[in-house]
Design a protein that fits this description.
Elements: E1 2-6, H1 7-10, H2 16-25, E2 30-32, H3 41-51, E3 54-59, H4 71-87, E4 92-95, H5 106-127, E5 130-133, H6 152-162, E6 167-172, H7 173-179, H8 183-190, E7 194-199, H9 215-223, E8 230-233, H10 242-252
């Protein structure tokens, strides 16, 4: 199992170059992050060359896939994000797909998402980058109210319908636990459709040991799955996270 570390949640407010160097000092050489537009990508590429840093995921530029009239805008955002990922040798993007639009039915929004993902396939094939659509909870995190893709089952159904190896699901176990439960069983049943996994304590989204989920058990079980992607550690720490990240890496990272 390969672990990656979200620089934006774990080290809020700190410069990503500084964080990369800190993680590297302790043998933690794979990162992920959200927005790429506000990052110094050239500096990151230099660090990759110097230190061997890997980038597991970045997030597709904010756009909506659920509004048909904004399809071109969404595809342009996806193209720019895929090119940014490609420049960092990053094979997977996390893709948040949009919020409810007044005047559109839920069925219309979901069909727009499916059609948009089909339209995105040439971009993904050209760049060789996977897009992983992410279901988010719409109950605990109030700012996510109205987000259309709110269960993993819906995400898996959509990916199965699109049926392309570069269109997957980002399976964030925190969000799945809040909305659906049965986190491990769902993951085991749908692992062929998973492009990226993320972990945080649930329901608080803090350290993994502060969770209803037994992450020692869950992470050990993921090692047994037919999955060669990353498990991203993406929580908001209560205290300095470095010791915990080193401990997780020593116990679960197999490379």
């Amino acid at each position: 199992m390969k672990l990656s570390y979200n620089t934006e949640t774990l080290f809020q407010g700190r410069d990503i170059v500084e964080v990369i160097k800190l993680l590297h000092e302790h043998g933690l050489d794979t990162i992920e992050f959200w927005s790429w537009q506000d990052k110094n990508l050239e500096a990151m590429r230099q660090l990759q060359a110097e230190l061997g840093i890997k980038v597991a995921t970045l997030v597709v530029s904010p756009s909506t896939m659920v509004e048909p009239e904004r399809r071109d805008e969404a595809l342009q955002a996806l193209r720019e994000s895929a090119e940014a990922a490609q420049s960092l040798h990053c094979a997977t993007m996390v893709h948040t797909i949009g919020f409810e639009k007044e005047g559109l039915s839920r069925d219309e929004m979901l069909q727009s998402l499916i059609d948009g993902l089909h339209a995105a396939i040439p971009i993904l094939e050209q760049t060789g980058v996977t897009t992983a659509i992410e279901p988010l909870n719409t109950t605990t995190d109030r700012e996510l109210s109205g987000y259309v893709l709110n269960t993993s089952q819906l995400a898996f159904d959509i990916v199965a319908e699109v049926n392309h190896p570069l269109v997957k699901v980002c399976y964030d176990m925190y969000h799945v636990q809040v909305m659906e439960g049965n986190v491990l069983t769902r993951l085991q049943n749908h692992i062929r459709h998973v492009g990226h996994i993320q972990a945080a304590g649930a329901p608080g989204r803090h350290e993994l040991y502060m969770s209803e989920l037994n992450y020692d058990y869950v992470l050990d079980a993921i090692k047994q799955l037919d999955y060669d992607g990353y498990v991203g550690i993406e929580y908001f720490p209560i205290h300095d996270p470095l010791h915990d990240l080193i401990d997780l890496h020593e116990r679960f990272h197999t490379g």
